[in-house]
Write a structure and sequence with these properties.
The complex is a heterodimer of chains A (about 400) and B (about 240).
Chain A lengths: L1 H12 L1 H41 L2 E5 L17 H12 L4 E15 L4 E9 L1 H8 L5 E4 L11 E5 H7 L6 E7 L5 E12 L4 H6 E5 H8 L6 E6 L5 H12 L3 E5 H4 L1 H39 L1 H9 L4 H37 L2 E2 L9 E2 L6 H22 L8 H5 L3
Parallel strand pairs in A: 3-8, 5-7
Antiparallel strand pairs in A: 1-9, 1-10, 2-3, 2-6, 2-9, 4-7, 5-8, 6-7, 11-12
Helix pairs in contact in A: 1-12, 2-10, 2-12, 2-13, 10-13, 12-13
Chain B lengths: L25 E12 L2 E13 L4 E5 L6 H8 L7 E6 L2 E2 L5 H11 E4 L11 H7 L8 H14 L15 H13 L5 E5 L7 H18 L2 E6 L2 H6 L2 E6 L2 E2 L2
Parallel strand pairs in B: 3-8, 3-9, 6-7, 7-8
Antiparallel strand pairs in B: 1-2, 1-4, 4-5, 9-10
Helix pairs in contact in B: 3-4, 3-5, 4-5, 5-6
Classes of the chains: A alpha+beta (about 400), B alpha/beta (about 240).
Chain lengths: ~400, ~240
Amino acid sequence: MQWLRLALLNIWRNGRRSLLLAFTLCIGNLALLLFVGYIAATLTGLRESTIRAGLGHIQIGLQGQFDGYADQPLQYGLTRDDQVRLEASLESDAAVRRVVPRLVFSGLVSNGPRTLNFQGQGIHPGRERQAFGAFQTLSAGVPLQAHDRNVYRALLGREMARRLGVQPGDSVTVMSSTVSGAINAIDVEVAGLIATGIPETELYSLQLPIEAAQELLRTDKLSYFAVLLNDSALSEATQARIGLRLGHRYELKGWQQLAPLYTQVLQLYRNQFVVFGSVIALLVFLSVSTMTLTTLFERAREIGTLRAMGISSQTIRRLFVHEGWLLGLASSLIGAGLAAIATVVINLLQIELPPPPGRNSGVILHLLWLPEYVLPISLTLPLVAMLAAWWTSRRLGRLPIVSALAPA
Amino acid sequence: MGHLQPPPSPQSQPLAPASRPQPPILAVESVTKHYRRGSERIVALTDLSFSIDAPEVVAIAGPSGSGKSTLLNLLARFDVPDSGEVRLDGQDLASISPAALDEFRNRKLGFVFQQFNLLPVLSALENVELALAPQALSRAQRRERAIAMLERVGMGYRLAHKPGELSGGQQQRVAIARALVGRPRFVIADEPTGNLDSKTAAEILQLISELNQTMQTTFVIATHDPRVMQLANSVIELADGQRIG
């Protein structure tokens, strides 16, 4: 305690220098925590928007469904028996919130003079809305209705509708191959226009009620079930458990496998954080080293006196280490406090950022405050400061007492 | 009055003493020390010998460059002689391993400096307590001994004052308390009155004299001050690294 007290008094004594160093450490921690908050918010947002934009946490189909290759449409589709068995099994699972059937197909959509290709989905409007409704935005028209007697209605991507020159209420013809390889077409009314903010999706998306899609493809099969869970954090564990229960006939794909972009963005942010964190740590290390070195010279006579009194150089070195971590901890805590306030203020200000690559609408800057990251980061900087003081004060062992006591 | 004796030659020692004689407190035997400054060889001490057999105040006098500081450095084992020996309580200081030096200095030596060298952030009491830090004492024991020592040097009423709040004489009293709190056999003082006015210097010298007698502590004082030489039981005069008196 005696040395801790002396360390504190020494920090106080070198007020201006300590303050300058504390400011560096404080801003370093503030910057790191805000950056982590931004990354966490971005990743969480990306994860939830990916999952709730229709992907779901898990997709379940027959083995081969997700390989991307089939000799004929719905070759690996789920039969009626599969559908019944899977739905019964999934809906009895407490971790599962919603089970949504999907039929994936492709073809051409035409209004007569103009024809475009599309990536289509047959959906169950009611169950889709229950699962993902809040995340689907329409720029015009109305969503597909669950109990609409008229199943010949479609949602088109906003850009697709623009290029076709159609509005909600207009009619288009949808053509596709049936499961037996023949060409089939149905006329549908445009119910609404899908606005995802992603130009590519808005150009190629088309959604039909599942009954209409099955009629178009002349089948009663489904492509897969999208499963929405109660908790994203339990996704992998739930997938493993369900997979074990269903056996090898079925194939399960997690949302991270279906959206590799998320993993790539995650890795990118991790790398950025490592680089940014290393720069801050280096800055702290150099600042503390400089201060320790200056202090060593300034306090040479004191050091000489302590050494002459028989106080070991290791003990005196410990004093510098105490000064390093005490100053580091105090600054780091202040930095964390400021970061918490800044997080609240930034979130309240609703600052809009320019659209990220691949999107056509801006995003609101949002930061997360994650205690599980705040503590380790806030403790890392004092550790770096301590290490810098320890490293720099190694010179003490080489400082002859006579030189230390000599008049400056 | 002086107890300074030339070091005993081996021939003069009895072959079978009836009782083992006490070694001198300090014995400096044929000590030579030189330094190099570039290609120049500077002789700091040449064949210096003396011993101190009883606790007393010894003044090391001489002009600047005479070898006083070199001698003090050798006595404190900050440095080792090129030849000859320095023995404290019979122990050759050159034989002390670097690892044992801290304990040696803490247990056997005390230091008093011209500039007092008190830690400015600590109170008088804390400065004195600090000298006991390496010893296996409880905080209460350290405090008790530090207070007792400060009272002994007449600073019991200034325990909580920091050096900046004390006069030069008071700071030197605290420094003397710090040097003596570990009850060393030997105190090395480098110009302890150099920064004090005459009246205060006289008081400090009086204090040193009293402590020498009451605590049986030997003081070796490097000085230019004639009053120190008057007070000292013995004076070793140096010039150009040699003893001249």
